[in-house]
Each structure stands twice: as C-alpha cells, then as structure tokens.
Amino acid sequence: MSEIKKFPEGFLWGGAVAANQLEGAYKEDGKGLSTADVSPKGIMSPPDFSMKDFNLYHEGIDFYYTYKEDIALFAEMGFKSFRFSIAWTRIFPNGDEQTPNEQGLEFYEKVIDELVKYNIEPVITISHYEMPLALVKNYSGWKSRKLVAFYENYAKTLFTRFHKKVKYWMTFNEINVVMHAPFTGAGLLFEEGEKNDQDIYQSAHHQFVASAFAVKVGHEINPDLQIGCMIASMLTYPYSSKPEDMLAAVMQDRKTLFFSDVQARGYYPSYMKNYIEENDINIVMEDGDLETLQENTVDYIGFSYYMSFVASTEPEHLKAQTSGNLLAGVKNPHLKASEWGWQIDPVGLRTVSNQLYDRYQKPLFIVENGLGAVDKVEEDGSVNDDHRIDYLRAHIQEMKKAIADGVDIIGYTSWGPIDLVSASTAELKKRYGYIYVDRDSKGQGSNKRIKKKSFNWYKNVIATNGEEL
Ligand code: BGP
After folding, report:
1. What is the pLDDT of residues 52-109, one digit of tens each?
2. Burial letters 275-304, b for 16+ CB under 10 A, else e
3. Any idea which residues are catalytic in this one (predicted)?
C-alpha cells in the first residue's frame, strides 16, 4: 500500500457544532421555541412540554454573544472550515411563516462574515437535531407532508441569502437517527410502546423529498454549491465468522445505508422495497416524488463517526450490551470504550470510508468525530487532554490510510472544537473541545475560554497538513 505524507491540497480541516448546543440566547431577536428548548434531558430523549426548570440548551456556551472571540480562536488554530447549523427558529420562529425574520438572518450573516474574514470556509447544516416546536404541535413533525414546503422555503431563504459566501451545505444532520430517536431530528412523538415503522418511514420519505428539493433549489440558485447528505455512520462487524453473524451485520448496516442510498443514488433500494412490503408499511408519495429523488442526488456524503458496532446471533452476546448515544450494542472484545461506553475504533473509520466510497463514488466529508470526556483544569490553569489527542491522532492516521486506499475525502471537522452542551445528556460534563469553557451543567462558571493541550496539537496538525500527528 502506498503511503501519503500529507493530506490533499485544500483539505478542509476544522471543527463542527450545532446551534442548539452552543448558541444560547434562546428567546432573543425574534427566535421561536425549538424542540431542543423543551428537551432538558438531551435532544435524544423525549421532550418535556411542561418544562419550567433550568435547561442548559437555553444558554449553551453563549456563542450568540461570543462568536467573534470563539472564531478568533478557531482561526488561531488555523481552521480551514467550520461546520455549524442554523436554528430554523431564528429564521422562521414557527416554521410555517412565509417571510423570514431578518434579525435571525443577520446573526448568521455576521457569523459567516467573521469566518470569511479569516479565510475559514463556512459549512452549514440546514437542520441539526431541532426544529420549530410549533411544527411538532401543529403538524406532528415530519409525519406531515406540509413540512416539505416549509423546509423548502427555509432552505431557499438560506441559499438566496448566503450562496455567494457559503459553498458547502448539508440538508439534515444524521438523517438516519429517525430510526432510533424519532423526536430528535424529525419531531415524531410516540406514546410509550407505540413507536411504529409506518410513521418513521413516512417521515423519512418527507425528509428525503425535502432534502432533494433543497438540492434542486440550491443548484438553481448557484450551480457551484456543494450540497451533501449527513448520516451517522454505524459500521457493523460480525461477532464471529459464523455466516449468520455476517448476515446479521450486513442487515444491520443496511438500516444506516438506506438513508445514504436514497440520497446519493436517488432511489429506494430493492432491499427496502421488500422490507416495506413485508411489514405492511404504506409510504404515501406524491406524483413526481421519485423523479425528484432521482434528479437531485447529493454532491457529497457527509458523515459522523465515533464508534463501531457488532452484530451477533448468540444470545449471550446480546446480553453483554454496551451503550452508545443512539443504540445499545454487542460489546466488542477487541475494543476499549470511552467513559460513556462508546467503543473506540480508529480502524473502523478507514473501513467505513472505504465502504461509503466504494458504494457511491462521491466525495466524503467527515463532519464529526471526537472523544467526549471529562476534562480537568489543573491548578496552574492547564487542561491536559492527552486522551483526546490520542483518540484524534489515531483516527486521523486511519483517515490518511483511507486516502491512500484511494478514497476521496475532502475534509475533517472534529466534533465540538469548543466545549458545548452534549446532545445525549444535556450536560457540560462530556466535553469534546480543544477549547475548555468554564461553565458547568448548572450553567455556573465564568464562561472563560481556556486552551487545552489539544489546542496546539491540532494547530500543528493543520499547519503541517496532517504530516505531523
Ligand atoms: C452526534 C450529533 C451531535 C453531537 C455528537 C456527540 O450524534 O450529531 O450533535 O452531540 O453526536 O454526542 P454527545 O453530545 O451526546 O456526546
């Protein structure tokens, strides 16, 4: 195998965040309430509509007010790109208005201008794990076809306003998560034990069509735009070489790949047609939907990668479950796990990159990867996060090997370059950043930014374009 020393010229090194996890200012300047605002246990847990208590999502890390100094720190690290999401509720507070809220657009314009000032390429996620709460209350979330038009209007508004300054876009964060946590990105509510495939697949179809319309309208406005999908990759290994285990792994992987298959190939895969028929799922489609999917496939495949999974047909393996932010899984005896039980697997990143590139032959963008850990500020004020450096180094090394394998990877934005609220716990205990934020899960602290040891490490990785890790 040939080695590469450096990453390709123009490689998009950077970091990734989501609006609800860091902005705060949840009621400022005309913003409406979002689903994250009523998720005090984390955006992956069921909401609490009667919520009155403190909710960290309301405050984030105050990025709404500190974006200039935070972006200056990203620039100091040499970021080439910064992935962030737009809060739908800042632009359309209830989601179904026709006219956007100018103050919301102005905020993001300022963020974009600040990035451009430092030659940092803005990468926008149009919808990251939240939506206007009114769309859930009045329309039952993505179950309703009406959301397609609302989303199209929202996406069109953003493209029209920002297309000259922003080239890279993603339609939905981790779109496949609707299978595991249906409220998170799709706003689906189920009573205990009532979760059903019918609503989930119908909602996914609406999101597919909305995403394809966004690709269409984005390209009409500016053919140079690069509009991608974004999946939570969930590479699955067979527990053993037993053929049944291998089959189980293939079947489990399809639950993820289904989402990128539709968005990248432009049609429902045959395996899913069978599943839908066998399970009496009736996906209601409008005339022209299949053509819309076919004609508006994504330009690149964005994905997150934190861990790998294992499939087994042995009952005793199924008992030894490990945790993850989305689904519990079979423990892999060859891997160590993070403090939150996520199984750390750098080689898996190379494997999944090969898998996705083989399948689609479209550029890949690794838009999330990182280690959530507890960090400690020492008496001298330093934060020695060697555990994080080790994790990232190992993953970047494997990404380098994937490029040597022939995979076209255009960028890497590690998750949470600055500490932010955790999606699965709604706390500030599980940290990902190169920059420490002096704030705790109760919102107490000076909010001061402190450079961790990983700050200079990542800065050097970028400066040497990945030659020195
Ligand atoms: C991904 C989400 C992010 C982010 C990350 C880490 O699934 O897209 O929003 O939060 O996971 O998860 P957590 O914050 O739960 O550690």
Report:
1. 777 899 999 999 999 999 999 999 999 999 999 999 999 999 999 999 999 999 999 9
2. bbeeeebebebeeebeebbeebbbbbbbbb
3. 368
Ligand 1 binding pocket includes 185 (Cβ within 6 Å):
no
Q: How do 329-330 and 309-311 pair as beta strands?
A: unpaired
295 catalytic per annotation: no
Question: Which is catalytic among the residues 23, 59, 174, 368?
Answer: 368
Which sign, positive or negative, has the C-alpha torsion 131, 135, 140, 146?
negative
**Residue 236 belongs to some domain of the structure:** yes
In order, the DSSP letters of 192-261 are: TT---HHHHHHHHHHHHHHHHHHHHHHHHH-TT-EEEEEEE---EEESSS-HHHHHHHHHHHHHHHHHHH
Does residue 129 line the site of ligand 1, with CB under 6 A?
Answer: yes
For a ligand 1 pocket test, name from 130, 306, 424, 429 the mutation site with the most ligand atoms within 8 angstroms of its C-beta.
424
> How many A from CA of 358 to the centre of ligand 1?
26
Best substitution site from 325, 339, 371, 375 to test ligand 1's pocket, by max atoms within 8 Å of Cβ? Answer: 325
Question: With contact defined as beta carbons under 8 Å apart, do 135 and 96 qualify?
Answer: yes
- Give the pLDDT confidence score for residue 249 in this predicted structure: 95
Domain containing 34 — which CATH number? 3.20.20.80
Tell me phi and psi for residue 247, to 5 degrees.
-60, -40
C-alpha 395/C-alpha 401 separation (Å) is 10
Q: Is residue 468 part of a domain?
A: no
Q: Does the pTM of the predicted model rise above 0.90?
A: yes
Whether residue 364 contacts residue 303, with contact meaning beta carbons closer than 8 Å, is answered with yes
